[in-house]
Amino acid sequence: xxxxxxxxxxxxxxxxxxxxxxxxxxxxxxxxxxxxxxxxxxxxxxxxxxxxxxxxxxxxxxxxxxxxxxxxxxxxxxxxxxxxxxxxxxxxxxxxxxxxxxxxxxxxxxxxxxxxxxxxxxxxxxxxxxxxxxxxxxxxxxxxxxxxxxxxxxxxxxxxxxxxxxxxxxxxxxxxxxxxxxxxxxxxxxxxxxxxxxxxxxxxxxxxxxxxxxxxxxxxxxxxxxxxxxxxxxxxxxxxxxxxxxxxxxxxxxxxxxxxxxxxxxxxxxxxxxxxxxxxxxxxxxxxxxxxxxxxxxxxxxxxxxxxxxxxxxxxxxxxxxxxxxxxxxxxxxxxxxxxxxxxxxxxxxxxxxxxxxxxxxxxxxxxxxxxxxxxxxxxxxxxxxxxxxxxxxxxxxxxxxxxxxxxxxxxxxxxxxxxx
Length: 421
What we know:
Layout: H1 2-19, E1 23-30, H2 46-60, E2 67-78, H3 84-102, E3 113-120, H4 122-131, H5 138-147, H6 153-162, H7 167-175, H8 177-180, E4 183-191, E5 196-198, E6 201-203, E7 236-241, H9 242-246, E8 251-259, E9 262-275, E10 280-295, H10 297-301, E11 306-322, E12 326-329, E13 341-353, E14 358-379, E15 382-407
Parallel strand pairs: 2-3
Antiparallel strand pairs: 1-4, 2-4, 5-6, 7-8, 7-15, 8-9, 9-10, 10-11, 11-12, 11-13, 12-14, 13-14, 14-15
Helix pairs in contact: 4-5
């Protein structure tokens, strides 16, 4: 009796301390490319940390009698300059990608999954500035981050950019913000008591919820692995030059954002107004292709707004005559490329938000215009050719005040039209 009582007390003392919830955790940080949700193993050492955690899943915790997976947390945040709406979307899809990846090494019930979106990570940025002695005007930046009301993110970002003429902001944007775009994975394991033998019987813990699979170095090669295909943001606009419209020259243009502050666009105009009774013609048609680089604080907040510089090339033909001498560019009855006029120029502009989906873009260009044109006069109801000349002109080549309609997922202006991004 004494022996059995001693064994019972020993087993109870061994098991009771483990009945409380005791956890062991694994955590890693996974980096993503800006605005992307696909896993890139070569990015910032992702492959090393992924191999590490999956190896621990398959080896260190393969002893199902000791560990039970209780929760998988994936937390993600946004760098301060990002839109909350878009970064929440990114965080959710990045979590889905990581869950899918880890599922190749174990069966994770939905009840174990937990996704946390922490928003714009001002606290994380503050910690990073405290640890980075190279941040320009570091003391002033820390004072701003600790003393300012950061609840209005748009105003806070603009104020941070203005601090010491953008120098601290550009440093943080390039050096610190990428760290804030990472997702952190934390695995919580409950420690389970060891098996004990008492009086011809085994004390066996409950069956663990995690069923582990053999470890593989490259899980993306495993059959059945599927990376989500989320819908990424898309930025474009449709525009019309209102100065051309005032001159009764219908026109339309489009711009597509290519990434890295670069866009490509094309414009077309066409008009053919004539009246033989009054001997006047108002005819022109042609198009251009432009390449723009967007810069300044507004362009860093959202594509296709703020300052832009670029180059463009244009071909066109025309025929203007209002009761006297007429001027025709290009070959009579020819197409646009028959002796057409052309322009090669550099441009500068600024796109100003006015509503949630509308901007006004002011721009001007300076460059070279060349080509062949003809002078003629209307005589006895005929158009009599007088001379042919070559045009060689350096100077202003375009003035534009364009009404711009923003199109695409996430392509909206902040605090316009009573709504925010």
